[in-house]
Amino acid sequence: MSANDRLTRSLPHLQNLIKRDSDAYREDFKLQYLHFESQFMELTAKPDTWNKSLAENISFVSQVAHCYPEECKGLSQMFIDVLRLYSTLLNNDIRLVIVRALILMRNRGLIDCIQLCELFFLRLLQCQDRLLRVTIQTHIINDIKKQNEKHKNNKLNSTLQNFMCTIIKESNAIAVKMALDIMVSLYRKNIWNDAKTANIIASTCFSKITKVQVAALNFFLCNNLNKDNDKDSDSDDVSKNGRRIS
């Protein structure tokens, strides 16, 4: 098969072949990866330009990176570096493709959770892109939930709680609000339902950022309201002679 034939082969088709037998298609992957690297280097020259072929290649290499750990050992760092350097300059769609590629690699255990959170909060929340923010917030909540499915991951939880506490003290309103929303969501899902989380949320009741202050106050008001409703429900279930109605 010629080089041109390999490069023009349908990427989804090649992806399926690789997942069936990665060793048999290692050379095909290497050739495609070289093509991807060449395109990715061009991104730094024109970061604000949409490139469909590059987007497809980014998705492809991230999908099969776990099949070729040696060949792709520098892939996640390539993505992270370009997001750090060109976060606000990148074309919105290309940036989202790279973020989704990193999320996929994180879901497969190829990237550290803390490293990705730092990138998202410290660099990408500077971008005026609502879809990007929703994608990031959804991923972080789902990732932490997954890490606590079998048992509480106390070490990771403590590290991330400290990180969120640091973010909440920052002046970036978008980052502060997202950190608060994540903590509130995890508290309500009974994942981070401890005193440390409650205290961090409580500290935002005095925030100078109006949206943050309102969200924090609503959290505590809703919690108290739910507790009062539970008490009323218990009272209704008790008869006049003090026996609970079955």
Automatic annotation (TrEMBL):
One example of a Gene Ontology biological process annotation: ribosomal large subunit export from nucleus
Pfam family, one: SDA1_HEAT
Highest taxon of source: Eukaryota
Keywords of this entry: Nucleus, Protein transport, Ribosome biogenesis, Transport
Location within or outside the cell: Nucleus, Nucleolus
Main location: nucleus
Residues of the SDA1 N-terminal domain: 60-237
InterPro entries with a match to the protein in the record: Sda1 (IPR027312), SDA1_N (IPR012977)
One GO CC annotation: nucleolus
Entry's family note: Belongs to the SDA1 family.
General function of this protein: Required for 60S pre-ribosomal subunits export to the cytoplasm.
Protein name, as recorded: Protein SDA1
Species in which this protein is naturally found: Rotaria socialis
Lineage: Eukaryota, Metazoa, Spiralia, Gnathifera, Rotifera
